[in-house]
């Protein structure tokens, strides 16, 4: 059965309409980073940025070029802790939420 709607478009719309989903995704990103899954965390964070703040506004808030931010959050990106902290701060402020990272069972 063919999908009638692009998955990323669906995620973006749901995040924009459901603040609790946006916060849950941000919590999941933090959890993934802290538990050694940075590739997945970057991709989810990239989708969350696209759905909420957008890369142009993120660039303004972090004083980083949009193109650099795109690279940082790509599958092969390698953002510094300072850059990650700036991205998290901007997204948290946009969503007006706090973070709760959880350890994953090993």
Structural descriptors:
about 65% helix; about 110 residues; 6 helices; mainly alpha
Describe this structure in words.
The structure is a single chain. This protein has a domain of 59 residues. Helix content is 67%, strand content 0%. The chain is built from six helices and no strands. Helix 1 crosses helix 3, helix 2 runs antiparallel to helix 3 and helix 2 runs antiparallel to helix 6. The radius of gyration is 14 Å and the shape is globular. The model has no long low-confidence stretch (mean pLDDT 87).
Q: How far is the first residue's CA from the last residue's CA?
A: 36 Å
What is the strand tally? 0
The succession of helices and strands, N to C, reads: HHHHHH
Strand content: under 5%
Radius of gyration: 14 Å
Strand-pairing-aware structural class: mainly alpha
Main sheet overview: none
Binned, the helix content reads 55-70%
Shape: globular
- The residue-averaged pLDDT reads 87
Low-confidence stretches: none
Helices, by number, come to 6
């Amino acid at each position: 059965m063919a999908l009638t709607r692009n998955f990323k478009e669906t995620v973006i719309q749901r995040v924009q309409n459901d603040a609790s989903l946006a916060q849950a995704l941000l919590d999941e990103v933090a959890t993934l980073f802290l538990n050694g899954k940075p590739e997945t965390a970057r991709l989810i964070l990239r989708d969350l940025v696209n759905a909420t703040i957008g890369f142009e506004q993120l660039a303004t808030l972090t004083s980083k070029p949009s193109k650099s931010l795109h690279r940082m959050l790509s599958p092969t990106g390698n953002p510094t802790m300072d850059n990650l902290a700036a991205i998290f701060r901007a997204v948290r402020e946009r969503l007006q939420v706090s973070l709760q990272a959880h350890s994953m069972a090993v």
